[in-house]
Amino acid sequence: MSKRKGRSVKKHLVVQAERRKAEQAGYDIILWRPQCLEGALLEVLGERIGAHENSQQLKQRLHPRLADRHTEPAAYAELFPRPVLEKTTNESVCSLRHYLENKQN
């Protein structure tokens, strides 16, 4: 096994252990796919996400289209109204939507 692959396996095991610890503490974990929040949101808009694209590239694709800075919740409202979010099949967004719906009940 190469040194690089060894680090990757070790990092994966650490992430798994941290996730298990968080779940045992009562936290719900939602992993953003593909790649990150921006990747999931671009997919909601019907855009293809290339396997070669990293998180930074996806951020560069989405952020200029927002109504305000990406740190402002209102910046997303125009691109992602409720009907758009309700009809998406993106697994991460659907998981978050179901979590929030169950939290309110």
Protein architecture, described:
The structure is a single chain. The protein is mainly α. The chain has helices at 3-24, 37-44, 55-62, 82-87, 91-104. Helix 2 crosses helix 3. The radius of gyration is 16 Å and the shape is globular.
- Quaternary state of this entry equals single chain
Helix amount, in percent?
55-70%
Q: Strand tally, please?
A: 0
- The percentage of residues in β strands lies in under 5%
Largest sheet geometry: none
Question: H/E element string?
Answer: HHHHH
Return the structural class: mainly alpha
Shape: globular
- The overall pLDDT, averaged over residues, is 88
Précis, in short:
The protein is mostly helical and 105 residues long. 55% of the residues lie in helices and 0% in strands. It is built from 5 helices and no strands.
Quick tags:
55% helix; globular; mainly alpha
Task: Describe the secondary-structure layout.
Blueprint: H1 3-24, H2 37-44, H3 55-62, H4 82-87, H5 91-104
